[in-house]
Amino acid sequence: MKDTVSHCPVENAMLVLAGRWRILLIYYLLEGTKRFSDLRRDMPKISQRMLTLDLRALEEAGYVRRTVYPEVPVRVEYTLTEEGLHLRALVDVLGECGERLTRHREAKAA
Question: Which of 69, 68, 1, 56 is nearest to 25 (CA)?
Fold first, then answer.
């Protein structure tokens, strides 16, 4: 992971959670354990490579647990760790912010 410039805790969080998909991954994993194909279905615009990279980054940060089952074919599941579950409040606040922005845009367009 990159070093922070400001040593601010918000910057630390942004280094891990920034980007188009990571918060969305957390959002969908808050629903429960998912397989890779489930996440691809939830986010059809994400590329396989980006999904893999973002899941690895969230796993490295301690937010996601990857479990591999020795079956044929191999089954891999992703779930939020205890630390990842603490991000629910952040996801909820971002959702509320998104709803307010949508209402504001709609009122402005009317």
Answer: 56
Three-state secondary structure along the chain? CCCCCCCCHHHHHHHHHCCCCHHHHHHHHCCCCEEHHHHHHHCCCCCHHHHHHHHHHHHHCCCEEEEEECCCCCEEEEEECHHHHCCHHHHHHHHHHHHHHHHHHHHHHC
Residue type, 81: T
The tokens of 81 are what? 């760790």
Give the number of other CB atoms < 10 A from CB of residue 63.
23
Name which of 42, 26, 8, 18 is nearest 87 in CA terms: 26
Tell me the pTM.
0.87
Task: Sort strands 34-35 and 64-69 into parallel, antiparallel or unpaired.
Answer: unpaired
pLDDT given for residue 1 in this prediction = 54
